[in-house]
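User: Could you write out the 3D structure of this protein bound to fructose -6-phosphate? I've included everything you need below.
Assistant: Certainly. Input first, then the structure.
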Amino acid sequence: MCGITGYIGYREAYPIVIKGLQRLEYRGYDSAGIMLFDGQDIHVTKTKGKVVDLEALANNDEKSKKGSTGIGHTRWATHGVPNDVNSHPHTSMSGNLVIVHNGIIENYDTIKKELINRGYTFKSDTDTEVLVNLIEEVKKTEDCKLGKAVQIALNQVVGAYAIAVFDKSKTNEIVVARLGSPIAIGIGKDYKEFFVASDASPFIEYTNKAIYLEDEEMAVIKVGKGVKVRKIKDDSLVDTTIQELQLSLEQIEKGGYDHFMLKEIHEQPKAIQDTFRGRMLADEGIIKMSSVSNHLEKFLNADRIIIVACGTSWHAGLVGEYLFEDIARIPVEVEYASEFRYRNPIITEKDIVIAISQSGETADTLAAIKLAKSKGAFVFGVCNVVGSSIARETHSGSYTHAGPEIGVASTKAFTTQITVLTLIALKLGKAKGNISQTDFNSYIQMMRLIPSQVEKVLESDEHVKYISSIYKDATNCLYLGRGFNFPVALEGALKLKEISYIHAEGYPAAEMKHGPIALIDENMPIFVIATNKGHYEKVVSNIQEIKSRAGKIIAVVTEGDTTVKEIADHVIEIPETAEALTPLLTTIPLQLLSYHIAVMLGKNVDQPRNLAKSVTVE
Ligand code: F6R
């Protein structure tokens, strides 16, 4: 939920750490802080607010920017309200140890009481200040080095963490550790410098070599010497591999767009293409996915597929339900990971659990996977972030290859997740003999057109912007869709509420009569997905019902539609495709619409209030 970063080496640490925090701000942005060590003294600067506020504060005091060792933090509050005092870094009582922490220490209260009994006092309400003092206490009582003290202390805590700790008495090292929250170590040339961060984006312009810690591992990073990784439990040394990063600087910058969200919306044609590249072999009439083929028997003999996910990924899972049941004829249940994990679900060895997650770090989804595995189910992951916790925890899986998604509102993650699910459904449908080679080929041909069709939908941006200007002041909106496009209605509503803070609800169009219709009046905009396939006539009837109650209708229709055009107040056209593929197109105008409305209302599109990109806590 928070972003942590750090630098130790020969360069000025301040600009590196600040830039790193800006790149990690998608993980949390209610407060920010930095510690610099100038060779003599530790300087901690922290504040409620964003990294820009931290920079403004640091600009008042040149000392706070000096030094070639630094750690920084951008926070999404869990323990303690977001204020200056609760912001990280936290310093131990002696002032010698400084820590940044992403996660939660669940037994902090018990530890805090023990430390208070031993004379410790606390400035903040955070679990993190407890942890840094626990490390200090262990260091004192055991008379050991920082690394050992961290190892012993972490064996006493319950919870989740990614931490970076600096000790004023050991100035050439930083100690990091991980359990449940990611941490990457960037390795500079000849070990002259090191970087630490929640993901590799803060250091990508300096090195493409990194070590990703596994859960329950810690590392002592020493300038000039190297990195020693150990198991937290028993202190045993771990043989680590240094990875070559594929990330480029261009991928994590805005590239001329005003916001990451807009950039990511526009990246969808390429992202979808990248998702099926090398997998969908149109000329050979096959879908090649070894992650599925290697376990084909399991998929073909599965009693059912259970999809677990949260938020937008859950909406993609709902589209998956329609795809798997329609194309592959496998029964599907779609579950909120947060509910599934606690409701004692019935899971058997003949179930396949598909976990969908952009970040691959969502705590509830991860817990749902662990539960399913413990009951013997085969677990398949659909993740975007390579090497993420969920990708590692699953038995097999497919990456979406969407590239980094930085805007907090998920866009290209959604369409690429649907792309992966479509490929799997087609592959299984064919393997089970539920679709003919001709239908399969026809799907592939239509799928091939999707990137250029998304491009075409994106050309309606000005028109969508105009519609946005008309409805931007609405206080409530409804989104309606049926069949494959019911989840798109949910997703459209989520996009609007999360970045513009306008209340919006998604419904299956036919459910409108069972309650929401009471909301309709001349002030209510209703976004209806009414493509020419599936239940078109029925949706047209729903539109008529809205019209007769004076609601404002904005419809997403198939090119050439005349019926809805006559009734609706506005239409946005998408190109013709198979019904099962329409979500990949109908989603796009709804993303643009929420984007424009949020911009027009002056909202912070990439960092909406109270949200964070990866939800690594319950
Ligand atoms: C909405 C959004 C969230 C995420 C959810 C799951 O735009 O981004 O609803 O979809 O937090 O995150 P992942 O996919 O990373 O597991």
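The chain has three domains: 3-251, 256-456, 459-605.
User: Perfect, thank you.
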